[in-house]
Amino acid sequence: MDPRKDFFDALADGWDEEEPSAREMAARLAEQADLLKLHPGESLLEVGCGTGKTTAYLAGVVAPGRVTAVDFSPAMIERARSKGIDAAFACLDVCSDDLGEERYDVILCFHSFPHFRDQSAALERFARAVKPHGRLIVMHLAGSEHINHFHASLEGAVGGDMLPVGEQWTPLLQKAGWEATRHIDRENLFFLEAAREEDRET
Length: 202
Prior knowledge:
Largest sheet: 7 strands, mixed
Strand order of the largest sheet: 3-2-1-4-5-7-6
Number of helices: 9
Radius of gyration: 16 Å
Shape: globular
Number of domains: 1
CATH architecture: 3-Layer(aba) Sandwich
Strand content: 15-25%
Order of helices and strands: HHHEHEHEEHEHHEEH
Number of strands: 7
Structural class: alpha/beta
CATH class: Alpha Beta
Helix content: 25-40%
CATH superfamily: Vaccinia Virus protein VP39
């Protein structure tokens, strides 16, 4: 049992009151629209959706495509479902649960990747779940230095949960059959985009 699940379950009731708000999150994602390159009609897997603070925005961008929003916290998913967002919600652990085969055009890990207890296993499952020529995006609205400094200061279940930095990504991605196509790491943004290696060769 991953203790992180209980940690996030305990936070679910007050998550929507935490800054930034859903409106602010949507506005900041909209500012990065040219980077995200999401398109109407796409099938998108949102990993670590929490209470759905960004799900409504994403669903609107890809409509008439579909967002599948997943989180390993049952309490977070319950709150997300209660909002009536036009998306499919599922309580799934991407480190161990089946995500399907070639289902998604885009897999987006927004503010979630450091909390995967087995990042290699998650990347392998993503590689199976993405469609040919699909994309994986790992994104934070802060740079890795800030994220990792913050997590290093925490105690308990998520204390020390780290985002890979720089060349640490290369072997991690390669092991799962991914290749980075874009990597930005600055003070107010971390953005990594990857494609399956087999797609890059065709």
